[in-house]
Amino acid sequence: MKFLEEFRKIPNQITLIRLLLIPFFVYFVFQNNIYFVILLYFLFVLGDSLDGILARKLNQASEFGAKFDGFTDDIFYIFIVILIMISNPITSYLVFLTSIFFLLIFSFVKISGLLIHSEYIHIHLHSGKIYATLLTITFFYTFFSNYSIKIMNSFFILMLISGLYYSIEQMIIILKYKNINLDAKSIIFYESE
To answer: CA dist 97 to 8, 50, 52, 104, Å?
Structure first.
């Protein structure tokens, strides 16, 4: 019952709404409806900020909430990578293969966290924010502009490099530290709990 109690907290309700927005986001991408895609993306990002702010203001922060928020972010950004892979008519094999490679590395990091620490781990690193920003730019550029393949590939390579760095940073923390600080900002200045 403690699990259900967590959903009485307003921040976790916001995160649940964000999770439920993902299928609608995917649907409107395939409908090529940029207005709803932008609206849903904006609501997703706004909700991502609001849940954390409200958790602190209302004194409703919890380990479950932090992990649920991170899990929701991960699911959303995995869908964006998959959408870039399958929906772009001029996606090169290189983009497709590197996307698969990245998803495998990302999955390996998450599974390692589960196996080593017996819990889902999503560390809120600055590199993750950079990755999410580049992923967003790549997504919107790929889907909603008359783009040049060179520019799209440049965005994609930057996104991939930042995503790999983010995954490596998380993996080092998962392997090196027994107590994981989910609010760490960088491996460089890392302090475990």
So the answer is: 42, 35, 35, 11
Domains and CATH numbers, the chain: 2-176 (1.20.120.1760)
Please, are residues 85 and 96 in contact by the beta-carbon 8 Å criterion?
yes
Task: Of 72, 47, 159, 78, give the one whose Cα is nearest residue 124.
Answer: 72
Angle, vertex CA 110, rays to CA 152 and CA 178, nearest 5: 130
Q: What is the pTM of this model?
A: 0.83
- The Cβ of residue 23 has, within 10 Å, a number of other Cβ atoms equal to 10
What's residue 173's pLDDT? 92
Q: What is the structure's pLDDT at 59?
A: 94
Contact 38, 91 (CB under 8 A): no
What are the 10-residue block averages of pLDDT along the chain, 193 residues in total? 83 95 94 91 92 92 89 90 72 70 86 90 89 85 72 79 90 90 81 66
What are the residue ranges of helices labelled H in the chain? 2-6, 10-30, 34-57, 63-87, 93-117, 126-144, 149-176
Separation of CA 126 from chain center? 12
Backbone angles phi, psi at 139, to 5 degrees: -60, -55
Give which of 16, 7, 18 is closest to 47, Cα–Cα.
18
